[in-house]
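Fold this sequence, please.
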Amino acid sequence: MQSRKPQKIDLNTDYPCPCRRQGRLIPIVLTDAMGCDRCQKIFVVEENGYAIEQLATNYPHKQTWRWVGNRWITAQSYLKQSYLPIALGAIVILLFVWLPSALHVPSGANFLIWAMIAVIVAIIPAFIHWLTYRR
């Protein structure tokens, strides 16, 4: 079994593209960056030298990979680590605050509307998570 310990990235070594295409990362002269010969994406080596980050202006948060000797693994981002507690907190607030207050509405039709809104709002974080981290 291969080690998952990150290795320091050498700018003079040839690496496969982390975007899972058949491209190769080629060092860009006079910079700490590498470019893919296939997908034309540019990657910058982070200061510690153990990870690369994709330069992209249209992505909401950084995509970072670490080299483990034979392949790239995705580095955990802060958003991904903090997303689950935020989503669970939103669901708890909906279940214990908003839904009981909707139960006190006198009309049955209003309760159904409030319950549907609560369910939709509870599903939105899961949908956003799926859109953000799908491959």
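Residues 68 and 94 are 42 Å apart (CA to CA). Residues 78-103 form the longest helix (26 residues).
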